[in-house]
Amino acid sequence: MYTFEEIIGHRGVIQNLQQAIEHNKVSHSYIFDGISGVGKKMIAFTFAKTLQCLEKGTAPCNKCSSCRAFDSGNHPDVFFIDTDKKNLGVDEIRDHIQKDIETKPYKYRYKIYIVDKADKMTVQAQNALLKTIEEPPSYGIIMLISTNYKQFLPTIISRCSLIKLNPLKPGEIKDYFKSTAVDPHMIDLYITFSGGSIGAIKNMMESEHFLEIREHVIRWTNEIHSGDLMKLFEIQKEMENYKEEIDFVLDLMYAWYRDILFLKQMGNNPYIINKDKVDVLLNTAMVLSYNKLGKSLDAIEKAKKQLRQNANFQLALEIMLLHIKENAHERNRSSF
Fold first, then answer.
1. For 287, phi and psi rounded to 5 degrees?
2. pLDDT band at residue 335 under the 50/70/90 scheme
3. Taking the CA of residue 39 as centre, how many other CA atoms within 13 Å lie in the half-sphere pointing to its CB?
């Protein structure tokens, strides 16, 4: 069931949409833009449901025939366009919107078209859609959902109401998970790597891949500290298996050393990300000085920068690992 109350965060956006309904200032075209999993589709769907509600209020009644049809996925006057293709082509736009919108609504007040991944539209598709956006019928509403609205033609952007959805705040995400069975110690870890996206957190929770990579990172850092040079080249080879995700892998490694540094500075504190691994962090913290931890963090950051600039993948990792190893073995037990 789609309701505004079920949406996490974005209170200001929701209030503005409701005010537009209340004051009869609903636009014929919208862009809902933000990172994946932040709630764009949920807001667009709930807004569309509200617009079609027979009670004509600022929230869906969830009881009328329109609301029931919407929740069942069989609303005759709301259309959802999506694609698994690399691009959303002109034929899809012409067939699903441009031609269809010429016919009046079947039963309800509006004909609403919700286009997911709309920023994948080709230039030809956007130009076709532009004709409809420029001269929409009184009953027509088009909602474009995107992760990068700058991919749209300037003429599309200028004719749409742009609704930008910011990443969710950590507090909003924590509140959402309070009533769930998720380990509270894991929430901060998920939040750190989610970018403020509930969708990303749910994906991490449903997949073992995230925690699997983290376990590799923890093992790699321990092996770097073992002093075995051959282990270093084994680690490099293993990291190469994650070439497509290397930025994420290095973020995990950076977070691990950051936690060690924070643990040394403040003991067990709320800023620790890997809260479920404090004992492991503590063991490493005992043998690394502040100076060496700082240099290790710098080495990881430098590798990330080099890889973003298309540096040699193997060489960048090799240099990073060697620098961390050098720093790791200038130990200072008294510095904790």
1. -115, 5
2. very low
3. 27
pLDDT tens for each residue of 143-191? 999 999 999 999 999 999 999 999 999 999 988 888 777 777 788 889 9
Q: Is the model's pLDDT at 73 over the cut of 50?
A: yes
| 290 three-state secondary structure | helix
Token reading at 325: 């190893």
Is CATH 3.30.70.580 the classification given to domain 4-166?
A: no
CA 244 from centre of chain: 17
Domain ranges of the chain: 4-166, 208-335
The counts of H helices and E strands in the chain are 15, 5
Count how many residues are written for the chain: 336
Distances (CA, A) of 194 to 79, 248, 305: 30, 11, 21
Phi, psi torsion values for 261, nearest 5 degrees:
-65, -45
Any idea which fold 208-335 has?
Zinc Finger, Delta Prime; domain 3 (1.20.272)
